[in-house]
Amino acid sequence: MADDLDGDGYADLFTLTREGQARVYWGGADGLSPERCTTVEGVGSETRGLESPRSDDTPETERPFDARALAQVVRLGGRPHLFLPGDERFRLAPVGADRTQGEPLVIAAPHALAVAVGDVNGDGHEDLVVA
Q1: Residue 41: which residues within 8 A CB-CB, separation 6 or more?
Q2: Global pTM?
Q3: Cα within 13 Å of Cα(52), Cβ side
């Protein structure tokens, strides 16, 4: 997911690999560079996917698909937060202008795949939606 995480005016790239690693590639005037990469801690095994049991005799149209957590950046209070899925909970880690990760919000939600922020109930406050 691309977003300007550090507020320098250049797009940065947040990624989750199938092996469960999270990385931020920091953008600059010359674009993205592998040399400006930060490995993000705090990700669990969910990024490898939630594989559904399958039987060889189940018709293809009735087989559920494998779901994988999305690499996401959400803004809470105007500050970018990285969505870091885990086994029993997920973390929303704020990113500072100095490219450091702040103390994450930890929310119990097994097998979370995605998160969104918006004013769902119209009360003027940010609400968090988790899938």
Answers
A1: 101
A2: 0.80
A3: 12
- Rounded to a whole number, what is the largest CA-CA distance in the chain? 54
With CA atoms as reference, report the closest residue to 21 among 49, 4, 45: 45
Cα 38 to the chain's mean position, in Å?
15
Q: How many CB atoms lie within 10 A of CB 129?
A: 11
Tell me how far apart the alpha carbons of residues 50 and 24 are, in angstroms, rounded to a whole number.
24
> Scanning the structure block, which residue is given the tokens 């250049």?
10
Helices (H), 12-67: none
Q: Please write the tens of the pLDDT for every residue from 86-120.
A: 888 999 999 999 999 999 999 999 889 999 999 99
Strand runs labelled E in 1-131 = 2-3, 12-16, 22-28, 31-40, 73-76, 79-84, 89-94, 105-108, 115-118, 127-130
